[in-house]
Design brief:
CATH topology of one domain: Nucleoside Triphosphate Pyrophosphohydrolase
Shape: globular
CATH class of one domain: Alpha Beta
Helix content: 10-25%
Radius of gyration: 22 Å
Strand content: 35-45%
CATH architecture of one domain: Alpha-Beta Complex
Distance between the termini: 25 Å
Number of strands: 28
């Protein structure tokens, strides 16, 4: 738990859009120069050209010769939640815990965050803004026989700095089996060498950059979502005046949606449901969910087929497994081959928001995915892959139409953002926040609940509550 003084500094950084080093325009120029001046090549190859990867003769599982990194095998799923369903699919098994870490340091009294322009083979634009350290255990154990990731020494064993965020958080539960990463933010006082492809940015600058399509990567988003701006026990009247039509905060006027968001952080007593009620709702949903997930050989997965170049579902929807060859002159290893999960079209990830009891609330789903350790985590109102196909086929999840057909005046946030480019090829979601006027008229199923922004941040502090899609979208919310 960070102290009130640190939280105040985080809030001040979140409201600062002019950093000590780069303006937004200078950063954009720097970023695209980094992207264009490096030599990158990613091309799809047949499975037979994979180096150090092979299909196990008995199971058909796609494995690495070291026994590390990850494995692609099959799972069989049976559940009664949210309705009776059964299916089989490939899934990534990567039981080791990686580190996603950001170093922060004060310059001119404002916290800045050390970020990296990093290439990942699955990114639609290759280079995106990543955390200071983004490494699997196989990477920092140097199984690839390459260089040790830069800044790893700050995060290994006993971290070298004051811990601001330190959480174990899940990854995409529909694509990974029990995958977690350690999300960390460290505050340091000593000088930090800024290596090539790294730069310092304020939190406010990062919030602005999250409005750009495919610029800030998923790993950065999940780490930033863990930032706490205030603890309920430390709330002070100095933060806001309820009687003001706008809020004055660090010489900045908060109005409109930004004001609503801030009050949703601060006014916990106005929440529709108290913390204990949400815990009880979530426990009840999980207690009544029956789900069986069984690992099966990849070559026994029903309705999935393999050819020279891909493993695919016979409907040609969902995703496929492909192989790529990669050349990148500024990575720990300059060239390699690997499998990726390829996605065919964009998805929609969105929160519906509405004013209830005078405070902004978010509609949260208790979402089931076979890869979650507890099978159910709290997610956005909608997480819909293959959104266009599902809408046209009338099989989209509840409330998807509010985002697919959203009027411009109801949209509070919208950006197309990539998912993890180290495992997924061109997997993008349109992240949205859409406001509705009459929440009392909305028929809300029992596996959904209204929560304030402050309550969402409270749950993010804990493991296995808020899923990665929700965290990614929450990180995009800004008081600017």
């Amino acid at each position: 738990m960070s102290s009130p003084s640190i939280q105040r500094k985080l809030l001040q950084s979140a409201l600062t859009t002019h950093g000590a080093f780069l303006s937004e325009e200078q950063f954009v120029k720097w970023f695209y120069e980094k992207s264009n001046n490096c030599s990158y090549l990613v091309k799809q190859i047949p499975f037979s050209e994979l180096n150090d990867w092979f299909f196990d003769k008995a199971t058909g599982n796609l494995v690495h010769s070291s026994g590390r990194f990850f494995t692609i095998h099959g799972i069989s799923v049976k559940t009664n939640y949210p309705k009776v369903l059964s299916w089989e699919q490939p899934i990534i098994s990567q039981p080791e815990i990686g580190i996603l870490g950001i170093i922060t340091k004060s310059f001119n009294g404002i916290l800045h965050f050390l970020m990296q322009a990093k290439m990942e083979p699955g990114n639609v634009n290759l280079v995106q803004l990543s955390p200071t350290l983004q490494a699997t255990k196989s990477n920092y154990s140097q199984v690839h026989k390459g260089k040790l990731p830069l800044y790893f020494e700050f995060f290994e064993d006993r971290p070298k700095g004051k811990i601001i965020v330190d959480q174990l958080q899940s990854e995409q539960g529909a694509r990974y089996l029990n995958k977690r990463n350690r999300n960390m933010i460290l505050l340091v006082e000593d000088d930090v060498e800024v290596h090539e492809d790294f730069c310092w940015l304020t939190l406010g600058q990062l919030k602005q950059l999250l409005r750009y399509d495919n610029l800030v990567n998923m790993d950065s988003r999940t780490v930033l979502s863990g930032i706490q701006y205030v603890e309920w026990a430390h709330r002070s009247d100095m933060y806001y005046d309820e009687g003001m039509s706008s809020i004055e905060l660090f010489d900045r006027q908060l109005e409109g949606f930004q004001r609503e968001l801030y009050l949703s952080l601060m006014k916990r007593d106005n929440a529709l449901h108290q913390f204990e009620d949400i815990i009880s709702w979530f426990t009840h949903v999980k207690s009544n969910c029956e789900i069986q997930v069984k690992s099966i050989p990849l070559n026994k997965v029903h309705q999935w087929h393999k050819n020279e170049y891909e493993i695919y579902h016979e409907s040609h929807h969902y995703f496929s497994v492909i192989a790529v060859a990669v050349n990148a002159n500024n990575r720990e290893v300059p060239s390699w081959t690997q499998p990726l999960l390829k996605h065919f079209s964009y998805g929609i990830v969105g929160f519906l928001v509405a004013t209830i009891n005078g405070v902004l609330h978010f509609l949260v789903e208790a979402r089931m995915c076979p890869g979650y350790r507890d099978f159910i985590e709290m997610g956005p109102t909608v997480s819909c892959s293959e959104a266009e196909y599902r809408m046209q086929s009338k099989i989209a999840p509840p409330f998807t139409e509010y985002f697919y057909n959203a009027d411009e005046e109801t949209i509070r946030f919208s950006a197309t953002l990539s998912e993890e480019g180290g495992r997924f090829y061109h997997f993008q979601n349109k992240y949205m926040v859409v406001a509705i006027d009459s929440p009392d008229r909305l028929k809300v199923p029992n596996n959904y609940i209204w929560m304030t922004y402050g309550q969402l941040l409270d749950f993010i502090k804990h493991t296995n509550y808020i899923n990665v899609e929700a965290r990614s979208l929450i990180s995009c919310l800004s008081f600017l």
